[in-house]
Amino acid sequence: MATNIIVNGSFDIDQGQSGYGWTGNDLETQYSENTYQGNGSTDSVAEVNGSSNQITVMEQTFTIDNPLITELTFEAAIRDNFRAVAGEDGYTVVITDASGTEILNQTIYPDNTTFTQLSFPVDFPAAGDYTLTITEVTVDNNSYGALIDDISILVCLTKGTLISTPSGEQMIETLRPGDLILTQNGPKPLRWIGAKTITAADLATNEKLRPVRINAGAMGRGLPHKDMLVSRQHRMQVSSRIAERMFASSNVLISAIKLTALPDIDIDTQAEHVTYFHLLFDAHEVIFANGAPTESLFTGPEALRSVSAEAREEILTLFPELADNDHNNSIPACLIPDGKQQKRLLSRHLKNAKPLLMS
Fold first, then answer.
1. What gap in Å lies between CA 114 and CA 98, rounded to an integer?
2. Cβ–Cβ contacts within 10 Å for residue 291, how many?
3. How many other β-carbons are positioned within 10 Å of the β-carbon of residue 121?
4. Does the pTM exceed 0.85?
5. Closest by alpha carbon to 11, among 46, 56, 51?
6. Calpha distance 269→188 (Å, rounded)
7. How many Cα neighbours within 13 Å face the side chain of 6?
8. Starting at the edge strand that comes first in sequence, how are the strands of the sheet with 146-154 ordered?
9. For residue 220, what is the DSSP state?
10. What is the pLDDT of residue 282?
11. What is the CB-side half-sphere exposure of residue 197 using CA atoms within 13 A?
């Protein structure tokens, strides 16, 4: 039984076409970002507030073949119109198992017209069918509200990746909680490590499970020093003057799938199987994988609400400080631009033939 990642989470496929993926009520996924925000972007987005006096419901069912702890990510914004009210217009994001038991329930009230990426860990306790449901929070007499885009399930680094430690590089699969790992903030103890193997059957059935291959030297400065595989949504650090000019910060985190717009970074179509790993620290960190800067697992805000009661109890026993909503792991290690900004950044790098890692 194959594991299906969210289908058409960027809404590039229109209703009625093969691969659309979504069912529900009052779906509004056919318009560009420019339609709602007037910013010139042609990227498709969904408004979770369609026709007047109707409740918009977006739904998709997928299958998990083994117990799995991973992340659901998406981008959220409020529509740029005075009828859309920040803090009032929003939606719930719920994942339920086949019996209807909730394993994730988050209510989102976007407060900015600029898309912001949100991440929520999800604990799939067993194999089976699960349903993602996105529901408009309120019914009003207008059709202006909250937007959503780039819905995906996150995984991480792959088996065989070399992680920098104070005593040298070590294969990721040999790491254990308590090991010291080099980060941009110095050596830090690893608090937790998780893994998920994707089989050949999974890869053959669902191309979106295939990793991104970053060839040696593709990011600049000879990095990574050997080819590396990461999941599509895993983020690599870009350090450049272009980033500094765009964001007033030279260091930003960019999803690997966005990096495929550049030379020598591609989706690996030859892999027969792949094992993904998550590394968790006390705070979100930038670590070094095959020499290249990349992120650790980022839990984001309110992470504990999105795991099962059993997992929450175990995590709080190990990490009682996570009960504090101001815990460091809810703060990104550096700026994470939204998806459209990431595309623009990489377009400028490509146009100017500039490496992603400056000297």
1. 35
2. 18
3. 24
4. no
5. 46
6. 35
7. 28
8. 46-47, 146-154, 68-78, 116-124
9. B
10. 86
11. 7
